[in-house]
Amino acid sequence: MGWLVEGLRIARGAAVTSFAHEPVMLSEVVELLAATPAGIYLDCTLGGAGHARAVLEKAPQLTLVGIDKDPDALYAAQEVLADFQDRIQLERGSFARAAEILETSTDAPLSAVLMDLGVSSPQLDRGERGFSYKVDGPLDMRMDPSSPLSAEAIVNAWPAAELARLFSEHGETRMAGRIARAIVDGRPLRTTTELADVVTSAIPAALRRSGGHPARRVFQALRVAVNDELVVLGPAVDSLVGRLAPAGRFVVLSYHSGEDRIVKDRFRWASTGGCTCPPQLPCVCGAAAKVKLMFRGARRPSQAEVQRNHRAKSARMRAVEGVVGEGSKW
Question: pTM, whole model, 2 decimals?
């Protein structure tokens, strides 16, 4: 293990951009992941490594493979994890490649997995990243700055019908068409504040008084499209569930209903093995469960945490535990 990122060693002490971020539901994540057998702890969305450091401190039996698209996050994480340099491997990339990275880097059992979906505080707070409707900056929204597609390209090139479909799928059902037409009429749009102003002006004043900032869901939808988040989430969950060791645990934190619905469906399928038998009857279709649900439904952050960190408000946690069965790699 070591400071490995895409085959290049990162020098300790290198300049690191501040990536301070309060980990959401930290104690709950640590409680679930630390009580796992010896093996690999895969953090699919490493960020500033707040979760990772806490898990490594509590679980000496685990070694970390940490993945993130954002080079700023990886450079910050190496400093946060400096005390664990012999127990970590850092890789730049999407969690869509997580199973591939594991396959080529280790034969150890996969004992713990964390996906903390959504955007980190540093990404939101830095105007130059273009994620926030509250901070002026270019319309970017790329978690991986080298990716070819930006929010500016979508906003200024997609036809109104495609924009409306995107916004409708991510929560702006009533106003999706109206917002899309306003964006097309306002082109070219180059900055986050320009887009936020256009979206706000497209929504009737009476509807602006509730539901938070009028542009919130539009920005969310654009971020999802730019980073291809929902397309890769389901297959990534499936591939890692199939590799999870018996008694290994897989925890996902999601922040909007689209993410949570995918995770819920994939975990439910894995916990039944895809059983098609009526729920009130014994299984006769031969399905074999890969995991068991750690708890029913989704857990939410405590009120105290939400008061301390308002960005935790929309978080939902789901978790499964690996079982011995036909679908298990181990």
Answer: 0.89
